[in-house]
């Protein structure tokens, strides 16, 4: 369903020489190569299986290696909780399916959407000034990201912008989108998302779209743009870092 590069990227996050546990519902891998800031990574696939990778010290901290016989997703989470290991909070992760990705490449570009660059600094600053701090934080759309696209109204006002940057050194780009309140509900975000994703695809990148599980508007946008849910991704909370 998803392009091979997507499957390969996510599988690589959970491959290691030591598979501590594997069942239909749960797989746990001990991986000493994980970054310290992500020494615990979880991906719950849409099929229902929870995939977990962690550094050896963390596995020892929660007593994992002595409890693998009856391990379940629920008992693993209880072990983490009992050890005081907090999670950041899961994000939905969306990608384009192979069929939708092919259609995206053949789609024409809308006339009112174009790339943004450093010459648009003043226009972009005005755009940001009309958004709330919460919207700016949630979207994280920046003019200095790897690619930035915007949609303009008939008077040249920037209505919606999206930006993306390469993710974890893989041929995958993570995307953020921001639409000013006055222009929401017009389909502008969907058009901008598809435009910037097409640009990324032409440069050899797949798109990753993340949002929190309770962000109904962002979930609706991902679906409207043709993205499909791949799974729910979580990592250890920042305040748990060593």
Question: Any descriptors?
Answer:
11-stranded mixed sheet; about 30% helix; single chain; about 240 residues; alpha+beta; 2 domains; elongated; Aminopeptidase
Task: Please explain how this structure is put together.
The chain is α+β, with helices and mostly antiparallel strands. The chain is built from 8 helices and 11 strands. It has helices at 4-12, 56-61, 73-82, 98-105, 121-129, 133-139, 188-202, 216-224; strands at residues 18-22, 26-30, 40-45, 50-54, 91-96, 113-115, 147-152, 158-166, 172-179, 206-212, 227-235. An 11-stranded mixed β-sheet has the order 1-2-4-3-11-5-10-9-8-7-6, sandwiched between helices. Strand 1 and strand 2 (26-30) form a beta hairpin.
Compute the number of helices. Answer: 8
Mean pLDDT: 92
Head-to-tail CA distance between termini:
38 Å
Low-confidence runs of at least 5 consecutive residues: none
What is the topological layout?
Layout: H1 4-12, E1 18-22, E2 26-30, E3 40-45, E4 50-54, H2 56-61, H3 73-82, E5 91-96, H4 98-105, E6 113-115, H5 121-129, H6 133-139, E7 147-152, E8 158-166, E9 172-179, H7 188-202, E10 206-212, H8 216-224, E11 227-235
Parallel strand pairs: 2-4, 9-10
Antiparallel strand pairs: 1-2, 3-4, 3-11, 5-10, 5-11, 6-7, 7-8, 8-9
């Amino acid at each position: 369903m998803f392009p091979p590069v997507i499957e390969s990227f996510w599988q690589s996050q959970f491959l290691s020489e030591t598979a501590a546990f594997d069942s239909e519902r749960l797989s746990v891998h001990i991986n000493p190569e994980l970054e310290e800031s992500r020494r615990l990574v979880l991906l719950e696939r849409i099929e229902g299986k929870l995939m977990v990778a962690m550094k050896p010290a963390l596995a020892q901290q929660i007593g994992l290696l002595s409890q693998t016989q009856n391990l379940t997703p629920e008992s693993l989470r209880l072990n983490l909780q009992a050890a005081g290991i907090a999670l950041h909070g899961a994000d939905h992760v969306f990608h384009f399916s192979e069929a939708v990705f092919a259609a995206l490449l053949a789609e024409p570009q809308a006339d009112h959407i174009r790339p943004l660059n450093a010459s648009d600094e003043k226009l972009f600053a005005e755009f940001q000034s009309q958004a709330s701090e919460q919207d700016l934080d949630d979207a994280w759309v920046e003019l200095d990201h790897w690619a930035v696209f915007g949609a303009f109204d008939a008077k040249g006002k920037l209505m919606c912008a999206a930006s993306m940057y390469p993710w974890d050194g893989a041929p995958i780009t993570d995307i953020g989108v921001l639409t000013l309140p006055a222009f929401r509900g017009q389909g502008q975000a969907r058009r901008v998302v598809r435009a910037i994703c097409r640009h990324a695809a032409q440069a050899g990148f797949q798109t990753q779209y993340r949002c929190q599980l309770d962000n109904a508007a962002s979930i609706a946008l991902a679906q409207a743009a043709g993205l499909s849910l791949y799974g729910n991704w979580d990592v250890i909370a920042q305040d748990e870092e060593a």
